[in-house]
Amino acid sequence: MSGTRLDVLAIGDAVVDVIATATDDFLAAEGLTKGSMQVLDADGATRLYAQMRQARETSGGSAANTMAGVAALGGRAGFVGQVADDQLGEIFTHDIRALGVEFLTPPKSGGEPTGRCLILVTPDAQRTMNTFRGAAHELSADALDADQIRDAAILYLEAYLWRSAGPRAAMEEAMRIAHAAGRKVAFTLSDIACIKPHRAEMIAMLEAGAIDLLFANENEIRELADTPDRDAAIAAIQAKVPLLVATCGAEGALAVENGRAVRTPIARIGKGIVDTTGAGDLFAAGFLVGQAEGRGLEESLRMGSIAAAEVISHFGARPEADLKALVAAA
Amino acid sequence: MSGTRLDVLAIGDAVVDVIATATDDFLAAEGLTKGSMQVLDADGATRLYAQMRQARETSGGSAANTMAGVAALGGRAGFVGQVADDQLGEIFTHDIRALGVEFLTPPKSGGEPTGRCLILVTPDAQRTMNTFRGAAHELSADALDADQIRDAAILYLEAYLWRSAGPRAAMEEAMRIAHAAGRKVAFTLSDIACIKPHRAEMIAMLEAGAIDLLFANENEIRELADTPDRDAAIAAIQAKVPLLVATCGAEGALAVENGRAVRTPIARIGKGIVDTTGAGDLFAAGFLVGQAEGRGLEESLRMGSIAAAEVISHFGARPEADLKALVAAA
C-alpha cells in the first residue's frame, strides 16, 4: 500500500437502495428502459414505489459501493456524501462505517430527505434504477475536508453527481486539492445519461490532465467519444488519459495504459447471476485495490472481475462474501 | 374459502427487521442468548446497532410475516399494527400492502419512531432477535375497526404484543368482537419471555374458551404448561383448547384436535437453511390457509411445513418464492 493514510477517498451519491423484483411487463407499463438509470422527483418516486412489490433495503450509491468493496478487499477507504438527519441517513451511515470506510460528512437537517434508488430487478437479473437524489445532491464544497483528500492516494469521483452544480463544484475543488498534493484522480462515467450534457466539458477535463484514471463501460465510452464503434471509442479516449479501464459486459474488461492494452475475461462465482446491480462499482473496487497494492494491470483487472462476480451473485450492490478470501483463492 | 371478506385478520407488532450476520463470539461479547428475543430501549438499540455489521432491512413483525405468508398462499389477509409517521413506517406500510394484505391502521405522529428488530444471524443460521418496539406498542383499542374484525373468519393474535397494557387491551376487545360475531380466535405464544409473566392469565383464557386455535413451539408449550417434559406439556394444553398446533424443530409439527393428534415431518426447499427467522410465522401462515381452504389437519400442517421451509432458505422473514406454486408442486 502507498504511504498515505487512505488508499482511496470517494465522493458520490449517498443513497439507500430499495430493491424489488419486477416483470418485463411492469417496466413496459411504467415506460422504463431496462438497464438504464433515470432521476425521479419526490412525487415520481412516491408514485413508482407505490406500484412496486415488497422490497428489501440496503445501502447503495455507486462510489459508496466501490468504497465498500475497497474496504472488503482490505483497502483503506473513505467516502464523502450527503445524507439527511433521518432514518435512511442513519442506515446509510451505519452500513458504510460498519465496513470500515471512513465517513465523516455530517448529516443535513431541514432540507431534502436522504436519497434512495428504486431498483427493479427483472427475471434476467438486469437492474433498472430510478433515483430520487434527495439530500445526496445537496453536497457542497463546505463538506470537504482538505486534509482527508490530501491523505488519500487516489480521489475517486462518480459522474452521477456531476449533473448537479453544487456537488460538481465540490468535486472540482477536491480535484484541485488532490492534484496540488500530488495525488491521483480517478473518475467513473456512471451512466450515459450523465455524459451527453457534459461531453465537451469531460473531454476538456481529460485533455487538461485533470483525470489520471477513467472507468467506463462500453456504452459510456461510446457516448463520451460520440461514436457507435466501441473500439474506435476506446482508441480515441485512451489517447487522452494515462490509464483507461473499460468493462465490456460478457466480453470482460480491458485496461489501456500509455497505449498498451491488457484484457481479462469475466469471472463466475456461486450460483450465477441474480442481480447485476453494483457490477461496475465492484469492478472498480477490485481494480483500485490491485493498483493500491502495487499489482500489475492484469492482476488488478482480475481482482475487479472477481469482486464484480461476487456482487452479481446475490441481491444488493455491496459485497456479502469474504472478497479477500475469494481473491486469495483465485 | 369461508363466506367472510377476509380469511385471517392479525394484530401484531409492526416493525422493520435489520438483519446482519454475526459470529458466536459477538453474541457472547454482547451477552445475548442465541435463538432468543430480547426487548431493547432506544439507547440499547442504538448501542447494539452501532456494533453490528452492515445490514439489510426488510419488513418484519411475527404476525405481519404470517399475514404476508397467508397472502402469498392466496389467502385474504388483513393486519392491524402501529407504525409512526416516518421512513421505516412507510417501508412497513408499502411492503405489507404490496403483498395484498389489507392494512388500514393510520400511522401515529409525535410519539415513538417505528419499531425495529435487530436480528443477528450466526453461521449456523440461527437468529437472535433484539427488538426496539417503538410505536408498535403504542397500539390502542382506538385503532380497531370492528367491522374489519367481524369480516374475518379468524382473528390471529401474537403474544409479543401481550406484554404491553395498551395493545393487550386492544387484543382483548378484538377477541370479544370476533367471538360475538361467531368468528374463531387464534393465538401464538411467540416466545418463552412472553409467557412466564402471563402464564396464569393465559391458562385462564384457554380454560374460558377465549382461544380456539393455539400455536406454540416446543419451548413455549413447556413454558406454558410449566413442565420440562414436552409430551406432558402437549397433553396438558391440548385438553384446554379445541385445536393445538405445535412445532417441534427438526422433528416436524403436530396438530391435536379434540384429542386426535396428526403429525408432519419438516420440509426442505432449495439450498438449505440460511436464516431461521420467520419459520414459525410462516408455518402458521400455511396452516391457517389450509384451514381456510377447508383442508384437513394433515394437509394444513404440510402447507405450514412448506411455507416455513421456503422462508428459512434465504435471509428475511417474508416469503420470496411463489408459495402457491410450491404447495401445488408438493
Can you walk through the features of this model?
- The structure is a homodimer of 330-residue chains.
- The model of chain A has no long low-confidence stretch (mean pLDDT 95).
- In chain A, the strands form 2 sheets. In chain A, strands 6-5-1-9-10-11-12-13-14 form a 9-stranded mixed sheet, with helices on both faces. Chain A has a 5-stranded mixed sheet with strand order 3-8-7-2-4.
- In chain A, helix 3 (62-72) packs across helix 11 and helix 9 crosses helix 10 (230-238).
- Chain A has helices at residues 24-29, 42-51, 62-72, 87-98, 146-150, 165-180, 192-195, 199-207, 218-225, 230-238, 279-292, 297-311, 323-329; strands spanning 6-11, 15-21, 37-40, 56-59, 77-80, 102-103, 115-121, 127-132, 152-158, 184-188, 213-217, 243-247, 253-257, 260-264.
- Chain A starts with 5 loop residues before the first strand and ends with a helix.
- Chain A is of the alpha/beta class and 330 residues long.
- Chain A contains 13 helices and 14 strands.
- Chain A is globular, with a radius of gyration of 18 Å.
- In chain A, 38% of the residues lie in helices and 22% in strands.
- Chain A has a single domain, classed as 3-Layer(aba) Sandwich (UDP-N-acetylmuramoyl-L-alanine:D-glutamate ligase).
- In chain A, 54% of the residues are buried.
- In chain A, strand 12 (243-247) and strand 13 (253-257) form a beta hairpin.
- Chain A binds chain B through residues 20, 49-50, 52-59, 68, 86-88, 91, 94-96, 98-99, 113-114, 271, 316, 318, and chain B through 20, 49-50, 52-59, 68, 86-88, 91, 94-96, 98-99, 113-114, 271, 316, 318.
